[in-house]
Amino acid sequence: MNRLRQKYQKEIIPVLKKELGVKNELAAPRLKAIFLNTGINEPQGQKEALKEMSEQLAVITGQRPVITRAKQAIADFKIKEGDPIGLKVTLRGQRMYDFFEKLVTIVLPRVRDFQGTKKTAFDGHGNYSLGVTEQLIFPEVSYDKISKTRGLEITITTTAKEDKLAMRLLELLGMPFAKPELAKGKLSDERRIPRRKDNLS
User: Fold this and answer.
1) Which of 25, 51, 104, 186 has the greatest number of beta carbons closer than 10 A?
2) Residues 112-150 pLDDT 10s
3) What domain of life (predicted)?
4) SS (H, E, C) the chain
């Protein structure tokens, strides 16, 4: 069993039960799923771009992504209904915990000038979104083996019905939220995370 999953069951659930004043551990919020999405719209080499990014996401998550397709045509972008426009990975169970632990303990700390993630990136329903500008922040991706940097949106869904409960859950799981005095610093926009140290030009 994943170390973080064990910590949740043995250490975090008791804390949440005490803070919420409940006796049933099923009432404590927990991670539900993690979604990774990336959009790819390249007039030239779309098929190759999808293949390359698919391989990278598979290495990052340990799971093959699925292709997302346009639900309707967009003339301005020359996109027809059903055209492939990106990739998506849905992580649950063991892989979800593995990815979350890697994200908070290895990936985010590698980001240059990282000062924490925003506490305001919740959607009002207990789900948290984190945008990164390039896949190179993941150590599995080699700078020499990519043709183009691409952004990713990471959405962490929980069973919490309120954002404050979801925030407390993620905090206990290790999410490095920004301190109040740093909340308006360089990472005021969650999607503007710079590339990792060892791949700066």
Assistant:
1) 104
2) 788 899 999 999 999 999 998 888 899 998 888 788 888
3) Bacteria
4) CCHHHHHHHHHHHHHHHHHHCCCCHHHCCCEEEEEEEEECCCCCCHHHHHHHHHHHHHHHHCCCCEEEECCCCEHHHCECCCCEEEEEEEECHHHHHHHHHHHHHHHHHHECCCCCECCCCECCCCCEEEEECCHHHCCCCCHHHCCCCCCEEEEEEECCCCHHHHHHHHHHHCCCECCHHHCCCCCCCCCCCCCEHHHCC
